[in-house]
Amino acid sequence: MNFYIVTLIKTGLVAIVLLTFCAYLVWVERKVLAHIQLRPGPYRVGPHGLLQPLSDLIKLVTKEGVVPADVNIFYYLLAPFLSVALALVSIAVIPFGPVVEVFGVQTQMGLTDLDIGVLVVLAMSSLGVYGLVIGGWASNSKYSLMGSLRSSAQMVSYELPMAMAIVAPLLIVNSLSFREIVAAQEGFNFGFLPRWNVFAGPFPQLASFLLFMIAAFAETNRVPFDLPEAESELVAGFHTEYSSTMFAAFFTAEYASITTICCVASLLFLGGWHPLWPAEYGSDLVPAVLFAGAALILVFHGAQAVKSRMWDRFTFPAFGLILLGVAALFLIPALKPVLIPLFWFAAKTGALIFVFIWIRGTLPRFRYDQLMRFAWLTLFPLAVANLLATGLAVALTTK
Amino acid sequence: MDALLFLTFAGIAVLCGINLILQTHPISSALSLVGVMGSLAVLYLLLGGAFIAAVQLIVYAGAVMVLFVFVIMLLNAGAERKSSKPAVRAWISLPLIFTFVILLGGLIASRAPADAAVRFGEFTGGTAANIGRALFTAYLLPFEVTSILILIAILGAVVLARKEI
User: Would the CB atoms of A133 and B73 count as touching at under 8 Å?
Assistant: First the structure.
């Protein structure tokens, strides 16, 4: 019985955190893109537009859901549901930290740990294409159909180099379970260089990591591979005919799959929740120092508030106080084994997600024939070569 | 719990299979086939074949069927007309199907030893490591022969596609 209660609590917690995170990811993306383009970005709703996701949510839910004439209604409604469900499922096999003891109950951070965790993520990401394909086809519109045709060709093509890039670190670690993969990357070479798959092993997986990230951009339909929704040529691609909650479902699915794939990348290649440098050199203090530093910056800016924004004198130090409280949480010995790994995992995943947004603000879109050529003639051979080299290195060094 | 899951997903598989034949539109049929494959994956999972279940999803549902759907959408195939069959055919074929199913069930019940029945949760040799070991030791020759066969098929497909371009 205890198991069911703990699992229920964890599932609820993960679902709430993931969905809130996805909503705020939209805010972060708009802000980062805006700052790349020297604009302030969302600024009106709440301080620095912080309540923007909430207002977007209210807007999307209360809007009228227009169902165009001549759509295949069953598949039209099934597609967004399928899309968001398949995107959210794979978070279930992702661990966020080590096995910990909370209130006397020993539990793992993360919902479940399967022997075939990596395969489940691959399966869900390859099934995710159905949401796009069915949606585009059922919409009965040429733009939607073009978008979904492109997406099915693109996702099938890029799955190959992605799977090949994943296999290489698996050869080194010799397991398909995320927990064991992370456990194999514990420790440091020469006392300071982390034994992550990108650095260590018989064959450093840097090439494999880059290949995986490039394929991940294509799998999640992001710039520079966002051909399925290329707005300059296809209006909005596969979700042209969708509005209201159904559009929100596609949107959530996209951000949930970005989050999942960044989690997978940091687990497979960047050592999961293991810190950047050993705890003897004070890596445990990093989160506390970071949050306290942010608090100091806020207090400093509050003291320099200009006359037209006098309320900054109170709001900035108030937020600073909250951040100081967060910093203090990282110093409590009872919470340390839970929070410190969580911080490192979130920091790595967050950094990768930032790269996703950064690339969106930097690169233009590929042409469609370039995209397919790149997948089959560049990415795939490179992934195979990397796999062969890794296999040879592993075969020569084991036993 | 196992029996409940089995009945649910076996039922979904059968329903999707029937739907696959009844639908007139190719896309609906293809998606029903995806439903069959997905429920089969759950049945494999119930039997302890976790690796096979994942591969079933990745290869069949995630790659083969996506290509099917892709081709159907690319050719923009519309709904097909149902050919008008004489009603006698339905009256004869239905009892024949039932007889066939009963005969098949009877044959399996009489031939298969009772103690060899499959029980959920008993089989634990379905992990990736088990299957890898089996493929690369006991079944090495069939495995390699199959891989060469698939290689020939790929080369043939490339050659055939090249001629048309």
Answer: yes
Q: Which of A126, A133, A176 has its CB closest to that of B69? A: A133
Q: Model's pTM, two decimal places?
A: 0.84
Q: What is the mean pLDDT of chain B?
A: 83
Contacts of A395 (CB under 8 A, 6+ apart): none
How would you class A353 by CB atoms within 10 Å of its CB: exposed for 0-12, middle for 13-18, buried for 19 or more? Answer: buried
- Among candidate residues A18, A21, A95, the one with its CA nearest the CA of residue A53: A21
Rounded CA separation A103/A230 (Å): 50
Residue with tokens 């990591």: A209
What contacts A232, CB < 8 A, 6 or more positions away? A365
Residue A274 Cα, gap to closest chain B Cα (Å): 26
Give yes or no for residue B53 having a pLDDT over 70.
Answer: yes
- Select the residue of A119, A145, A156 nearest B66 (Cβ to Cβ): A156
Residue B126 in contact with residue B51, Cβ under 8 Å?
yes
Query: Any residues with CB less than 8 A from the CB of B17 and at least 6 apart, and which?
Result: B32, B36
- Residue in A119, A126, A152 nearest the CB of B69: A152
* Contact (CB<8Å) B128/A149: no
Contact A115 B128 (CB under 8 A): yes
pLDDT (0 to 100) of residue A65? 75
Fold of B2-80+87-126: Four Helix Bundle (Hemerythrin (Met), subunit A) (1.20.120)
- Using 50 as the pLDDT threshold, list the residues of chain A that sit under it: none
Dump pLDDT digits (tens) for A287-312.
888 888 888 888 888 777 777 777 77
Q: Considering only CB atoms, which chain A residues are within 8 Å of B74? A: 149
ipTM (interface predicted TM): 0.76
Domains of chain B by residue range: 2-80+87-126, 127-165
The answer to whether the beta carbons of residues A265 and A352 sit under 8 Å apart is: yes
CA distance B107 to chain A (A): 36
Tens of pLDDT along A325-356? Answer: 888 888 887 777 778 888 888 888 999 999 99
